[in-house]
User: Which sequence fits this backbone?
């Protein structure tokens, strides 16, 4: 009995993904890479999503990246990490976590500037189908949308507290907001 599984080639997996995306009416924004490293930038709803394949791997990563642009929001987010605010970190993890996806922090110059929600898909395997791709896309986008809502809420609370002239430092590191 043979233990190896017959896998699709790079060209077959790439063509299959492109066919499925087209069949799902997902907007293909741009094809990336050459030869073994390849991927697709797509628009799923209003959100940009990357489907990325690295050379030698038999999977692709479906990734939805959220990056903070405003310096005040970045500073505020990192203040929570610096003081190891347990309640904030719990709420952040709850917003960015799901049973179907993983998330990681985007760190630049030692500061958290965003998050990536991701899920692996396996277009090289024979059991990969359009449903599997659809579940991956929906799960990263829905989890990312919840994370965005959390970050926007956090930023609005900060803006509101600044408008009231309140000091946003807090003596209780476990307390999130008033």
Assistant:
């Amino acid at each position: 009995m043979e233990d190896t599984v017959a896998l699709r080639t790079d060209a077959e997996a790439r063509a299959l993904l492109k066919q499925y995306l087209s069949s799902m009416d997902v907007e293909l924004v741009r094809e990336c890479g050459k030869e073994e490293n390849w991927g697709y930038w797509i628009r799923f709803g209003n959100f940009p999503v990357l489907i990325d394949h690295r050379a030698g791997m038999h999977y692709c990563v479906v990734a939805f990246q959220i990056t903070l642009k405003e310096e005040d929001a970045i500073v505020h987010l990192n203040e929570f990490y610096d003081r190891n605010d347990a309640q904030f970190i719990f709420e952040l993890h709850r917003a960015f976590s799901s049973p179907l996806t993983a998330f990681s922090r985007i760190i630049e110059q030692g500061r958290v500037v965003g998050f990536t929600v991701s899920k692996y898909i396996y277009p090289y395997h024979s059991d990969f189908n359009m449903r599997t791709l659809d579940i991956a896309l929906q799960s990263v986008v829905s989890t990312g949308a919840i994370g965005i809502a959390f970050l926007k809420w956090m930023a609005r609370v900060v803006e509101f507290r600044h408008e009231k002239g309140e000091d946003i430092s807090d003596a209780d590191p476990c307390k999130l907001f008033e």
